[in-house]
Amino acid sequence: MLTKLKKKEKFHLLHSVKREVYYSYIRIIRFFSYLFNKNDEYQFLFILSPPYAGSTMLNQIISSSDNVSCNNNLGTREGQLLPGVKHFMFQKDRWNENVQYPWEEVRKTWLRYWDYSKPVFLDKSIPNIMRVDEIEKVFSPIKYMCMVRNPYAQVEGLMRRNKQDAKSAAEFAIKCLYYQSKNRKRENILFFTYEQLCDNRQEVSQKMIEFIPELADLDMNIDLTSHNFKKTGKMKMTNLNDEKTAKISETDFEIINSIFEKDKHLLKEFGYKIINNDK
Fold this sequence. Notes:
9% strand, five-stranded parallel beta sheet, 279 residues, alpha/beta
């Protein structure tokens, strides 16, 4: 047992060192891209999406465009995980809306990771769904792509990946929908659902291009490396909602529905409804 722990510690240490080397390399490359590609203005594009709602998949699709630079291309591809901001952005209190971030410092750090040879600067940091007002004070011009997913599928992910109980996962999913209900009403936002993205990809793709013309070359059929419960390798964009919902136990279904019933008007706003468990 002790030997296994030591091997695990060595693995994590090596992984951490490799990440630091990679990020140092990226900062050097980006510095030279800044020197040789100074433009007057860049378009900031931030993804607003709850966790386990397809945000990494969306990030990869947008990043398929040659005109887009994502500030973090590793793992879940989140700007909040970059050196320089992770120590205050990726903390246990990150879902506390009263926590204030030094957004000027965040901007300064992220600018060291975007490629200045590309006109669109992309970020995905999921707690940002509740910090849009503060973000807009620092990042300009900025647009957002706002997305939600069937809350049952999101709850399954929260329970399986975060080890949350059904009640807390359902309450968190409702909290996310409340934030997205406010966000989707903003003028500089393109809103769509995970289901629309997966099942009507060409229609959503056209809307994306109309929203930001620089995305004209994006590829909706790329091989995706975002995490899912089916496999660890690459796969095409696929709607996994039914399979995820089927993994929820009868007991958990009852608990989830008891939470969702209180805010079923919110589910209805996004085109969702209470699911009766017929297991």
